[in-house]
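Two proteins follow. First one:
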Amino acid sequence: MSEAFHIIISGGGTGGHIFPAIAIANQIKSLYPQAEILFVGALGKMEMERVPAAGYTIIGLPVAGLQRKALLKNLTLPYKLWKSVRLAKAVIEDFKPDVAVGVGGYASGPLLWVAARKGIPCLLQEQNSYAGITNKWLSKRAKRVCVAYEGMERFFPKEKICLTGTSVRTHITPVTQTLNQEGRTFFKITPHRKCILVLGGSLGARALNHCVKAYIEQCDVSPVDIIWQCGDYYREESYAFIKAHPRSWIHLHPFISRMELAFAAADVVISRAGAGTVAELCIAGKAVIFVPSPNVSEDHQTHNAMALVNKNAALLVPENRVSDCLMTTAIDVANNHERRMTLEQNIAKLARPFATRDIVHEIIKLI
């Protein structure tokens, strides 16, 4: 059998969908250098920049998601969906894929739907512990559904499920002492001080940013250093804030490309609970306080976080409590060696470091 496979990977919207997709593509290319990989995403979303930066071709569809707050914008959805389906048909007829892979998000809907109707085998990756609407809908026609959590039979046909874990960026590894020192040097962390990493996701999180700003305003001096990823969306206002409130212990970054070093430098991580981030934190083995986003479908981030909290592998602070206790809790954990070690050991037990390899194995099996 020729190894010049044609593989389409579709999905996106956030880093939680994009980074696993790129990791899958990289693994395929490392095993099958002759394979041709085409990405299909949503126009105007971050995959249109991140995927080409990773060296892959991407085609954008005008598909859009349901707007829960701006209802009038939903009036154009039927036209965008119709146009996206037409474009997806043209893409498939031109590229002639051997398999189609959906990594989640509404961007994958039209492409995977068309592929399945044309008899092309489809594989879905569901990163979350509570399945998204698009994947639940597509699973009726998919041949395989790779999942990251047990008990997903309540969403998908049992015979299609394969428990693989979530694909993560290849450079995320368990933190060592050497990596810790490299990370602290890279981010210029003050020697002999604890460090807290605040992550609002690739796009940022207003609630977490407000919490960090409030802490900065209250403290000229802090007992910890803070690496603050504010998100690209909040880049300008965050830089303006730091200019008005300079603090030597704040290390501001709109986006962190060397996330393995950020994890390594941190004693405690404050983070949203997107599936990709959860999987990476498990592999890195970091003590984490999750602040699930309340603005996601089916509240899936809370489900993701609770899967770890229930195993004493993470803590959770609801978004409506961040101003009350988030920073004090993070500082307490950073300074409590025994508690921090317990969280690190328990979260590391949940890691699935070979998820990408296993997902690619399932993809090739379908071909």
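Second one, unrelated to the first:
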Amino acid sequence: MKRIGLVVSALLFACSGGQAFAQSATVASAVGPTAAQVRAFWTPARLASAVPMELGSKGQLSATPSFAAANNGPQVSGAGAAPTITGGPVNEFLYNAGVSANSEVSPSATSSTGAFFTTSRVFPDSATLSYPWRAAGKLFFHDPRTNGNFICSASVLRPRLIVTAGHCVYQAKPASGTRYFFNNFLFVPAFRQIPPAASVAPYCSWTTAYRITTGAWASGGGSVPNAQDVALMEATDRTCTAGSTLQKIGSVTGFYGYRTNSLIPQSITQIGYPANLDQGLRMEVTWAQSFDNGGNNTVRTARSSAVARAAAPG
């Protein structure tokens, strides 16, 4: 089943990892196309062609639930904030996309391990234009070696920082010479479709000036679960709402808070664009509890297809 890598992006960004970015080896890139080049690259046809980034090889998790903490490292936290710039949606046009009536699956009441969860489209649709929903969005990116166009979910974590999965930013392989960053990153907060088929960016599309992922992901061979399958990107300031002043993305969308080493026990809200629901064209939300310690610095939620990965962007 295809899926987009969900980011645990709630009013509380709860993370299991004890290793903060500042404390662990990282891989960073400031090299890439300019903002103008990224916008020129993403034609409507390329945007419409983007597909979910599939995960690599999947390791086996224990079938026996364990509620022990995933890590006993320090807790680090930061508060979220609502947008400071107000105004109606800009609705920057992206592309036209129709939805097939047979393209969806119906969410189950429980996971494969019998744990309960609730998944729903964010309703009403207009709610995605308000905080906290509008700080989550869809990330478009390009693989320069395969020439593929891909999508993931991502969230605004600080006034200029976007958080997503490491596998949505960096191709991790066992051999160092085969590892590389993706490029042409374009983040669309509150991505939505206006009937009948127009996909739009309500609060503009944003390019990135800097990308960083953890050494644990970069050198981990691309297999999951991974102790630090997480990445951060710095969004480039731009003019989005009325006026000519450059704006930070967090000022327009608001941003989420975060806290490390807090996933067990915890109620978790996951926001994103899973491709098996509404073809990834609508914002979906899953409410669940942390179900067990997945090992390797990870925690499983009641939704068995979504692993809450460690992250500590302090």
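SUMMARY FIELD: The domain at 14-308 is CATH 2.40.10.10 (Thrombin, subunit H). Residues 35-41 form the longest helix (7 residues).
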